Amino acid sequence: MFKIGRTTILGLFAAALLSGLTGCGADKTEEAEIIHLSLWSDERSAALIEEGIADFNREYADQVRIEYTLSFEGEDTCKEMVLADPENAADIYSFADDQFEELWRSGALLENTYDADAVIEAVGGKETAAAQVVTRDGKVYAYPETAGNGYFLYYHKGYFTEEDVTALDRILEIAARKNRKFTMDFSSGWYLYSFFRGAGLTLECSEDGSSNICNWNATDTKYTGMDVAEALLAIAGHEGFISLGDDEFVEGVQDGTIIAGVNGPWNAEYVKQAWGEDYGAVKLPTYTLAGEQVQMYSFSGFKLIGVNAYTEYPQWCRMLASYLTNEENQLRRFAVTGECPVNLQAAGAEEVQRAPAVAALAEQSAYSTVQSVADPFWDASSLFGITIAGGNQGKRDLQTLLDEMVEQIMMPSAPEE
Q1: Which parts of 60-99 fold into alpha helices (H)?
Q2: Could you tell me which of 110, 174, 162, 172 has the C-alpha nearest to residue 136?
Q3: How many angstroms from the chain centroid is the CA of residue 380?
C-alpha cells in the first residue's frame, strides 16, 4: 500500500499571507484559530484537496487557518484503515460508497449537522440514490463527491463502428483480427457482476450488513449459473480477450495493444490523451448467453467524503468536507480526472455534458444497480474470476466452482478485531 504523509506548506503560506493582509485592512485575522487536520485520499486527488483547502483558508481567513497532513490511502482500502483504529484515523477521509454501511455501523462517521439539507438538495433530493447512500434514519453521515463509481465500454473509433460495439462477440472478433485485445478485469467481482446480473441472477447485501444473498449458482432459473460460467470461459479463451487490472488497462491503451475495454470514468483522461479524436465510450455491450444476446449490467456508485466521529474539530471538519465536495470543487475534479460530478449543477455544466464518459454512464444507468455487498463477496468472486480467466486449467466442474463461490459469498463477514 502506497502511503506517504505530507504536511503542507500551504498552511504556512496562508499564515504569511494573512499576516500581510492585516496591514491592508483585514479585520482581526491575527485572531484566526489555527488547527491541524489529517486527511486521507488517493494520490492523484492530493493536488485537488490542497487547492480546496487553500481556497477554504482564504474564504475563512478571519476565522480559521487550517494546517494539515495529507496521506495517500486508496478509497477501496480506507474502511479497513479506519476500523482498525478509528480514534487515530484521519479527521477527513475519502471512500467508496460500498464501505459506508460498515463505517456507519461502527460509529466512525460523524453526522452532518452543519448543512445536511443543502447536501441532499445539491444531489437532487432525498429520493436520489446519492442521498440514500449517505442517509440513515433521516440523518446524513457523508458528503457525495462523484457519481462516477461505475463502468462502461471504452473503444477506439479507428477499429470499431457504433454498430460493432453493441455486441461483445463482434468486439472480440475485430480485436483478434487486428492482433489487438479487448480487456475486462475478470479477477474482480465488481466487473463479473455484469454477466451474472445480465442473466437475471441476484446479489445483494443482507439486512444486517454482514453477509450477502446470492444465487449465482442457480440451476432452476431462465439462465443458470452454469450458462454464465460457460459464457465466461468462452470469452476468456478468445484470442481477442485479455483480463487486465486498472493500471494494465491504461498501459495497454497507451501502447496500442488495447483497442476496447470495460473500465470506469477515472481513466477517461488517459484514454482521451492516448486516442484523441478516436476516443469513444458507450454502454456495455450484449454478450452471448445460452445462444441468446443478453445485455451486460453494471454496478453504479459514488465516491464519498466522511468526517471521523472522533475528530477534535467536528464543526470545522464538517464545513471543510462540505466545501471540498461543493459544485466548484466537483467541476475542478472533473477537469483534472474526468470523474463525473454528483452535484446536479456541476453535472449539468456544458463541459461535463460533452464528455463521452458522462454520456456513457448516463446510457449505462438504465442497466445498472447501486452497489451493495458485504466483504465476503470480493475474495470469493475474485478467486472464481481468476480461475475462469486462466481457462479453468484444473478442469474443475463448473457447478462445483459456482457452489463454492456462492457459499463463500454468503458467509458472514469476519468480526473486526
Answers
A1: 78-84
A2: 110
A3: 20
In 193-351, where do the E strands start and end? 203-205, 212-214, 241-242, 258-263, 279-282, 286-289, 292-295, 298-300, 303-307
Which 3 state secondary structure label does DSSP give 346?
helix
pLDDT in tens, 227-272: 999 999 999 999 999 999 999 999 999 999 999 999 998 899 899 9
Strand-strand pairing, 64-72 and 92-96 = unpaired
Amino acid letter, residue 159: Y
Which CATH number is correct for 152-299+365-409, 3.40.190.10, 3.30.1330.30, 3.90.1150.10, 3.40.50.1010? 3.40.190.10
**414 pLDDT tier (thresholds 50, 70, 90):** low
Considering only the C-alpha atoms of the chain, give the largest distance between any 2 of them, rounded to a whole number of Å.
Answer: 79
Give the pLDDT confidence of 352-372 residue by residue, as tens digits.
Answer: 989 999 899 889 888 988 888
Question: Given its phi and psi angles, is residue 298 left (phi above 0), alpha (psi -120 to 50 degrees) or beta?
Answer: beta
Q: Which residues pair with 65 in a beta bridge?
A: 34
The answer to whether the CB of 73 falls within 8 A of the CB of 90 is yes
Residue reference for cell 457452489: 403
Q: Is 260 left (phi over 0), alpha (psi -120 to 50) or beta?
A: beta
pTM above the 0.70 mark?
A: yes
Expressed in angstroms, the distance from the first to the final Cα of the chain is 20
Sign of CA dihedral 136, 128, 116, 78: positive
Q: May I ask the CATH architecture of the domain 5-141+303-341? A: 3-Layer(aba) Sandwich (3.40)
Q: How far apart are CA 134 and CA 116, in angstroms?
A: 10
Tell me how far CA of residue 34 lies from CA of 14, 130, 345, 404, in angstroms.
11, 33, 33, 55
